[in-house]
Amino acid sequence: MLHIDVYSDIICPWCYIGEHRLHQAIEAMPEITTQIIMRPFQLDPTAVAPMPVIEYLQRKFGPRAGAALRSVAVTAHGEGLAFEPKTQIVVNTLPAHRVLQLALAEHGAEVQVDLMRRLFRTHFAEGANVADSAVLAEVGAAAGMIGARIRELLAGDEGLGEVESQIVAAQELGVRAVPTFVFGGRYALQGAQPVETFQQALRTVAAAPAPQA
């Protein structure tokens, strides 16, 4: 089985697009068995109060913000992804990453990936607050988790240190931007690459001899 670590953030539009393209590549190559693990990364760990995405980008990039947002919207729509910039809000994604880690620990990688895809849609298509415990409990339940367990997690500090440690570990590994995809622990791609590039990565790593211990 080929393990793929995906470093991403829920409010990163290129993560949304890149994850979609990765799944397209995997679905087109059923002869290669894969397992995806979502790894945490925060685009802006200083984000506190929810803010409309256009306002956030204007503060960060100035006049270029509108054109950049329209460009990524065109790309997302071209991939068949729902993307509604007018309703999106930027939030601190640490609570969502904690729920993703809970999904992996208590339900497994498939549920975690399903949860991530639902969180992407919740943020980019529905404009919901993915830092809100009620929203996270609802989305988690839709992915097969237990809503009460998610609310219990977010009511305290459970799992917080682990997620923060994973983010630091990612930075120490050299992850500076997302999405970053690591195939088999030894081949990395950064950015929302074309489907064909992901397919080539899958072929290359699947065909390579396993590294010696």
Explain this structure to me?
The chain is α+β, with helices and mostly antiparallel strands. The protein has a single domain, classed as Glutaredoxin (3-Layer(aba) Sandwich). The protein is 54% helix and 12% strand. It contains nine helices and six strands. It has helices spanning 13-27, 53-61, 65-78, 94-107, 109-124, 133-142, 147-155, 160-173, 195-207; strands at 2-8, 34-40, 51-52, 89-90, 180-183, 187-190. It has a four-stranded mixed sheet, sandwiched between helices. A two-stranded antiparallel ribbon has the order 3-4. Strand 5 and strand 6 (187-190) form a beta hairpin. The protein is globular. 35% of the residues are buried. The mean pLDDT is 95.
CATH topology: Glutaredoxin
Low-pLDDT stretches: none
**If classified by CATH, what would the architecture be?**
3-Layer(aba) Sandwich
User: How much is the radius of gyration in Å?
Assistant: 17 Å
Number of strands: 6
> Regarding CATH, which class?
Alpha Beta
Distance between the termini: 17 Å
SSE class:
alpha+beta
User: For the record, what is the CATH homologous superfamily label?
Assistant: Glutaredoxin
Shape: globular
Helix content: 40-55%
Report the average pLDDT across residues. Answer: 95
**How many H/I helical runs?**
9
Largest beta-sheet details: 4 strands, mixed
The strand line-up of the biggest sheet is 2-1-5-6
Reading the helices and strands in chain order gives EHEEHHEHHHHHEEH
Number of structurally distinct domains: 1
Proportion of residues in extended strands: 5-15%
